[in-house]
Structure formats: structure tokens, C-alpha cells
From TrEMBL:
Belongs to the TAF6 family. GO terms for biological process: RNA polymerase II preinitiation complex assembly. InterPro entries: ARM-type_fold (IPR016024), Histone-fold (IPR009072), TAF6 (IPR037796), TAF6_C (IPR011442), TAF6_C_sf (IPR046344), TAF_TATA-bd_Histone-like_dom (IPR004823). This is DUF1546-domain-containing protein.
Length: 456
């Protein structure tokens, strides 16, 4: 049975000036209004039940209209149920009206005035300063914290009072994070870090690294070693010995099969990249000005460790390899960076990306790298010449990855590169890089490089 009859629709149409509405239209409209009406009531009942109430309110209907994307009703916003009264204008024509509460003006006038509300205000205070909570009225005190902890653990009232009384004599600050280490672990951490930074006792350093590599009970100390690594790299960029020991620590922690080091990879990457592509590593007193600077061997070790990191964690972190490749490529293409930075970035690109990185990222940029970075520096002699030579050797080393055979074919090594291939190779990678490629790989490697040039 329809709640809204066709006659009701016809009466409403007549009241708004719509004449001659066909019976089919009034019937369809009455059915649609009845459907919408039941839909709104159903949604309203859902809000009533979720509110754990038995009385339907106007707010429930407003919420239902809002859910159905219909403009809600205005007025009648009250938490009390709305009461309607009925008045009869004639036989069969009741009129419903909203019953209003009668107000006695005498009682209203004599009623006490409500309290004036306080103005809205706010104040700022320090919750913590360098990890320590200051003792101000807005923050909980040590006594409050002691009582709360004791109550949580099920302590007696006497223990809570004694704990509160004892805490009053302590400094009124507390650390935000509590990480309790046993005395044995604290002593172990101190001994290991002191041993690693002692250049006079190589046996003790090796013993400390072996312990980091094999011991299974270092889970609690792992964040402390990560912090130790970051601090030492930040404050000892001129000390190659400290930087080398830091890399050894990272390598040992990565090789320990009992440590879950994945959450700390993001904290270990910056120290490794600093040792890899840092612009100023070591001091001028580390060499005599003619030999290769010591930071080149440091960059070799950092590239190897970065390769180990990507091999272990690239599958679990899909953005690790792309981010490292972008960083290394940016340093490799920079014309303002020193030769050592280019050397480290070149090794890292090959170590992380393998053959595909050499083919796509390194080979097309070798000629510009030689022209903008290496040309002219070899003629300066001394340390600069040694750095340029190391870069050329690094180019030969990474390009050698393109050759799948590990042992060079003797016949192809004895075969000389043709003039046409040599000219094409020099135009592609530059004369210096072309000479190094011929030296390390012969005809076989030259053909691989030319295949890359020709897109094969």
C-alpha cells in the first residue's frame, strides 16, 4: 500500500499551479515519492540504532539526508523527541502542529543569571628540550609518573607513596625514551668502540670486527652502533683511518646473520655515500703529492659495501636502487666535483646497476666525462696525474663488465683493433677511455662497446 496516493500528488500539483496532470504521471510520482520516503526512513533508523537509541530524532533524518546527498532540513535541531498535536478542521481532515512548551515569564525573569563563560585563550610551553621534559606546571612531574607506573603494574598503595616520595629528591627531568642496557653490554660497547679507533693495536681491532660479525646478542646495541657510525663520519672527514674503520663496522654488521638490520639501512646509507662521493676526504698530509691519495681506496671499499647493501635489501625496498642510482649519476655528471667524487660515483653505478647501468648510464657519458673532467689534469703531474690514471683504470674496470667471458681469448687479444673501429671507439668514448678499453679487453671488449653504440 502506497503512503502517498495519486490524489495527494494531484492536490499538490494543483496548489502550485500545475493543471491537467495525467493520471499516469501522478501514479509514477506517488510511487517514486513513496520509495524515497522509505529510503530516508531506513537510513534514519540505521543512525538511530548505531546511536543505541529507541527514539528517532530529527538529527537522524538530517544525517540520512546528508548521506543520500539531499539537502537536509533546517530547524527542528533538538535532542528531545518532537511532539505533534492534532487539530480537526472538519470530518476526516486533521491538521498536525508542533506542540510548543509554555514559558512562565515570571519564573524566567526571577531565574538567576548563568555564569559568564571564560574567554578562549591558549598558552605555549615546551614539552621536551633535546629529549628531556622540563619541570613546569603544564608537564607531569616525576612523582605523577611514578604513581601512574606503580598503579599500572599493580603495586600497592604503600609502594606508590614511597616511590613518589623518593622521586621528589631527584632532578625534575625525565627522558622521553627509556632504553636500559645491562652493564655488560655497556662495557662491551665501550671496549669495541675504543678498540676500533686504536691505530696501534691491529689484533684488537680485528677481534672487535670479528665479534661484530659473528656475535648473536647484539640486537640492543645495534642502534648505538648506527649512531656511532654517523657521528664518526660527520666529525672525522679528514681522518681516513676513522672512516675506514667505520666502513669496516658497517661491513661487519651487514654480514652478521643474527642481526635484523633492515630498519637501519636508511641511517647507514648517508655515511656510506659520504665515504663514496665526498668532495674532501682525508688531509693533504696523507700522501707526498706524487702517489694516489688514500681516499681512493676508501671509495673502493664504500662502493663494495654499497653493492652489498643493495644486494641484500633491494627486494624489500623497491626505491633503494633508484635513489642510489640517481645520487651517483648526479655526482658522475657534475663538472664541478673533484676527480675523487667522479671515481666513487663511477664505481658505485657499476656496482649497483651492473651491466645495464654501464650500457645505459656510463657509456653514453664517458666522452663528456673525459673532456670536462680528465682532460688537462694529467699534464699537471704528481697527485693529479695519479688521480686521472685511477679514473681511467676505473673506466676500464666497469666497461669490462660488458664482456661476459671472464678469461680473455688469447687470439683476440693478439689481434689488433682496426683503424676504423679505433676511430669509431674514440668518437664514442674519447681517446683516453678508448685506449684504456683496448688495453683491458682488446678486440673483444671493443666490439662489445661498439655494439652498445650501435644499439645492439
Amino acid at each position: 500500500m502506497a503512503t502517498w496516493s495519486a490524489q495527494t500528488i494531484q492536490d499538490i500539483a494543483d496548489s502550485v499551479g500545475i493543471q491537467q496532470l495525467s493520471p499516469a504521471i501522478t501514479k509514477d510520482l506517488s510511487q517514486d515519492v513513496d520509495f524515497r520516503y522509505r529510503q530516508i526512513i531506513g537510513e534514519s533508523i540505521k543512525f538511530m540504532r548505531h546511536g543505541k537509541r529507541n527514539t528517532l530524532t530529527t538529527q537522524d533524518i538530517s544525517h540520512a539526508l546528508r548521506v543520500l546527498d539531499v539537502e537536509p532540513m533546517y530547524g527542528y535541531e533538538t535532542t528531545r523527541p518532537v511532539k505533534y498535536g492534532a487539530a480537526s478542521l472538519g470530518p476526516g481532515q486533521p491538521v498536525y502542529y508542533l506542540e510548543e512548551e509554555e514559558v512562565d515569564f515570571e519564573k524566567l525573569i526571577n531565574a538567576p543569571l548563568p555564569k559568564v563563560p571564560r574567554e578562549v585563550s591558549f598558552t605555549a610551553h615546551w614539552m621536551a628540550i633535546e629529549g628531556v621534559q622540563p619541570a613546569i606546571p603544564q608537564n607531569p612531574t616525576q612523582a605523577d609518573a611514578g604513581v601512574r607506573d606503580s598503579a599500572t603494574k599493580g603495586a600497592t598503595t604503600a609502594n606508590s607513596i614511597s616511590a613518589s616520595a623518593g622521586n621528589q629528591e631527584r632532578p625534575s627531568v625525565k627522558p622521553l625514551v627509556k632504553h636500559i642496557l645491562s652493564k655488560e653490554l655497556q662495557l662491551y660497547f665501550e671496549k669495541v668502540t675504543n678498540s676500533l679507533l686504536d691505530p696501534s693495536n691491529d689484533n684488537l681491532r680485528q677481534a672487535a670486527l670479528t665479534s661484530l660479525r659473528n656475535d648473536s646478542g647484539l640486537h640492543q646495541l645495534l642502534p648505538y652502533f648506527v649512531q656511532f657510525v654517523s657521528e664518526k663520519v660527520t666529525h672525522n672527514l679528514k681522518n681516513l683511518f676513522v672512516l675506514e674503520q667505520v666502513l669496516e663496522v658497517i661491513h661487519s654488521l651487514l654480514e652478521n646473520p643474527d642481526l635484523f638490520i633492515e630498519p637501519y639501512v636508511a641511517s647507514l646509507i648517508p655515511p656510506i655515500l659520504t665515504c663514496l662521493v665526498g668532495k674532501r676526504l682525508g688531509s693533504s698530509n696523507d700522501n707526498d703529492g706524487t702517489a694516489l691519495p688514500g681516499h681512493f681506496s676508501l671509495r673502493d671499499k664504500a662502493a663494495a659495501i654499497l653493492n652489498l647493501v643493495t644486494a641484500k635489501f633491494a627486494d624489500s625496498s623497491h626505491t633503494l636502487k633508484p635513489r642510489l642510482m640517481r645520487t651517483c649519476l648526479r655526482n658522475f655528471l657534475s663538472n664541478d666535483a673533484p676527480v675523487g667524487t667522479h671515481y666513487g660515483a663511477l664505481l658505485a653505478l657499476a656496482a649497483i646497476g651492473g651491466k645495464e647501468a654501464v650500457r645505459v648510464l656510463i657509456m653514453p657519458n664517458l666522452k663528456s666525462f673525459e673532456q670536462n673532467v680528465l682532460d688537462g689534469k694529467s699534464e699537471e703531474g704528481g697527485e693529479k696525474a695519479a688521480e686521472v690514471k685511477a679514473c681511467y683504470e676505473a673506466v676500464g674496470k666497469v666497461v669490462r663488465i660488458l664482456s661476459e667471458e671472464k678469461v680473455k681469448n688469447e687470439d683476440e687479444m693478439e689481434e689488433e683493433v682496426s683503424d676504423a673501429d679505433r676511430t669509431e671507439l674514440e668518437n664514442f668514448v674519447g681517446p683516453g677511455c678508448a685506449q684504456e678499453i683496448q688495453r683491458v679487453g682488446g678486440v673483444q671488449l671493443v666490439r662489445k662497446v661498439l655494439e652498445v653504440k650501435n644499439g645492439k
